[in-house]
Amino acid sequence: MRSDFAIRLVTHLYWIKKEAFALERDIYSYWTIFAVEDGRFIYRIEDRQGEAGLGSLVVCPPNTWFHRKTLEPLSFHFIHFMWNAEPSLEEIHSLSGSLKIIDIERLRSNYHYLRLLALEQDETAMERKQHLVSDIWRLYELETNIPREIGLNGMLADVEMRTAAQFIIDNAFGPIDLKSLALSLQLTPVQLTRRFRAAYGMTPSEYTTRLRLDRASKLLLETELSIDKIAQLCGYENGFYLSRIFRSKRGMPPSQYRSMPRV
Question: Where is the HTH araC/xylS-type domain positioned along the sequence (predicted)?
Answer without folding.
Answer: 162-260
